[in-house]
Amino acid sequence: METSPKVKKAYYVKFETPQDLVSPILEAIRVAATSGKVKKGTNEATKAIERNQSKLLVIAEDVQPPEVVAHLPLLCEEQHAAYAFVPSKHDLGKALGIDITAAAAAILDSGDAQHIVDQVIASIEKIKGGKTDQ
Predict the structure, then answer these.
(1) Where is the signal peptide (predicted)?
(2) Would you give the end-to-end CA distance of the chain in angstroms?
(3) N or C of the chain: less Cβ packing under 10 Å?
(4) Is 120 helix (H, G, I), strand (E, B) or coil?
(5) Shortest CA distance to 83 belongs to which of 33, 31, 46?
(6) pLDDT single digits (tens) 24-39
(7) What confidence tier does 133 reach under pLDDT thresholds 50, 70, 90?
(8) Longest C-alpha distance within the chain, in Å?
């Protein structure tokens, strides 16, 4: 029997989000939710990507069952949309200003968070290997 010290991520998590990037991602959501436009939840986020409206999609890593959000990274890749992961759906809900958890959220209008969103997208592109399609 083998024990791994590393926590296994859900299969839909395509890359590791550095811990120092989680706070800016959640801050971008928080600011955009108050000064811009954000879609909350998996269904709304999916529609935003399909309609090419999403500036940044944020997906929680602890969603159960994982099939709820498993299609989102693939859809983002198809649409060349930026996406990131945060460890907790509880923290994502809190950043959105709602009293429940959120599996996903899409920033449609960054509002006052534009500079944070730009930095997050640039950091994620570096993590993913510098693939830019936009």
Answers:
(1) none
(2) 46
(3) N
(4) helix
(5) 46
(6) 999 999 999 999 999 9
(7) very low
(8) 51
